Amino acid sequence: MENDKGIGASTGNDNDNISVGNKLKKGAQDAATSMWVISQYTTAFITSQVKKLRAKDEKEMTEADLEEDRMQADATDAAEAERKRHEQEALGIRNS
């Protein structure tokens, strides 16, 4: 039996507490987040390749590699935070 928020009896699994509409919304948001991450990884890769082509020495090539890694790590961290926010939103948890 569900209450007015679409949350049914708990079985200990968070996914059991999410209504179908919220599951669909969360899935769409997660898919959009994944597409954003792919675009950020692509941007990092292209930026790194251009910098490597223009590099005058090994130091500049290494810096390009490090910047690519940093950009990818930042994108991954942002995506994890966004997915966590989607999960909390789907469960009806609000951050103050």
Automatic annotation (TrEMBL):
Residues 1-26, 54-96 are annotated as: Disordered. Residues 10-20 have a biased composition (Polar residues). It comes from the Eukaryota. Residues 80-89 have a biased composition (Basic and acidic residues). This is Uncharacterized protein. It comes from Picea sitchensis (Sitka spruce).
